[in-house]
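Write out a record, fold above all:
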Amino acid sequence: MSKEYNVAILGATGAVGRRMIDQLAKSTIPVKSVKLLASSRSAGTHLKFRNQDLVVEETTPDSFDGVDLVLSSAGGSVSKKFLPEAVKRGAVCVDNTSAFRMDEDVPLVVPEVNPEALKNHHGIIANPNCSTIQMVMALEPVRRKFGLKQIIVSTYQAASGAGQAAIDELKKESQDYLDGKNMQEDAHILPTKGDKKHYPLAFNLLPQIDVLEDSGYSHEEWKMIHETKKIMLNDMNSKDIKVTVTCVRVPVPIAHGESVYFTVEDESATAQDIMDVIADFPGDVLQDDIKNQIYPQPINAEGSRDTFVGRIRPDYENKGAFNMWVVSDNLLKGAAWNTVENAEYLVKMGLI
């Protein structure tokens, strides 16, 4: 009889946590029991796992006694506080925050891209940033076949990347705009809660995600650069692939878009070659039929685990360079599903 696992979901009441519950229910992981954990404020909330009615508990170190697997998305400070406690008690943790991503001893994993990195875990596996995940999903088959020299990406990131409160704020601002009211009064979260000023997102674009650093880059941009290198090259500071990023928040509720310009080592590669390797890659869906105006759109990607890729075309001014457009549900493949999928791989590979 195969082993069954006691699973805890940390941050169960958040937008990603609720989706983790759903993705776990649909996964191949043999689940013996599920424990839902959150802050004292959310304790007592009732949520369903499959047909079970579960009560959310307040998180304490003792919450992880007897737990085999922790799926976490409760914020970086919460992860830093509790996941080491879970590991001490014998659990393996997959964390969807930025807390451990750049730790040399913590694998940063997109299962389709670098599953072998899971073998090096010491109790904690990190989920990459949502925008990084969909980009490496689109580019990894290209890198394997043709090599990659450079990536230049501009992101079009949905409000949900900043949580459910940001979606609610976008909706309120949109209604205010239509009613002729001042949207600024409702701007409390974006571009980032941790900065001094806040601006409305409705009918607007915000070229800042996370705090702006002295380098001129936002921390989100910094994350995408170094996470991409860690995932693809196992070295966050590698110079073997050049990466530069501009991250923009757009007034879309769910699903990020990305305009990706990339240069390959094999200059004989054609746009059709690029399409073919992407179409054959697990988790990627090619949507590229310009004659019928078929290309990825956030409104169609919402609710899907897949990464959608289209508008693949060569840069006719630079040999070996191409453009493409990538869309994925940032709350699923970008967060909840990638977390659960990492756990599935841990089980399949006998690493838990």
